[in-house]
Structure formats: C-alpha cells, structure tokens
Amino acid sequence: MCFSEQMLALREQNGLTQEQAAKEIGIAYRSYRRYEAGEREPGVTALIKIADYYGVTIDYLVGRTDRRE
User: Can you give the pLDDT at residue 9?
Assistant: First the structure.
C-alpha cells in the first residue's frame, strides 16, 4: 500500500472521520484530507505525529513494510 492508502485504512480501522483524525493528531484538516487523497505528502514532523497517533512505524505508514511495530 502507498502512504495515502495506509492513512485511509488506519483512519477507517479507528472509526474516525478525516476531521476527527486531523484534530486528534494536531494537524490541519485540509492537510490531512490532501495527504489521504494523495495530493500531498507530509513533512517529517507531520509524518511522525501521524505514525505516533496510529501507533505504527513510519516505514509501515509509507508502505515500506507490513510490520506495524
């Protein structure tokens, strides 16, 4: 899976809307929506926040591994 697909899958697994996820992670809703749509990729700070929030590694989040931890 690519990054945007991982974001969508993780959000849906947690039963969140894009707006809820963005608020919980601490990033702008508009940015979150663009990341999930594949229109934009996050910087390092946002990437770390997203991975930490969902409890996965950055490698998992960006599709480099199937291992979440």
Answer: 96
Half-sphere exposure of 41 (CA within 13 A, CB side): 6
d(CA 67, CA 24): 23
Measured between alpha carbons, how far is 27 from 51 in angstroms, rounded to an integer? 13
Contacts 24+ apart (CB under 8 A), 21-28: 21/53, 24/53, 25/49, 25/50, 25/53
Question: pTM of the entire structure?
Answer: 0.90
Confidence of residue 68 (pLDDT cuts 50, 70, 90): confident
Q: Domains of the chain: which residue ranges?
A: 3-61
Degrees, nearest 5: CA angle 3-65-27: 35
Q: Which CATH class is domain 3-61?
A: mainly alpha
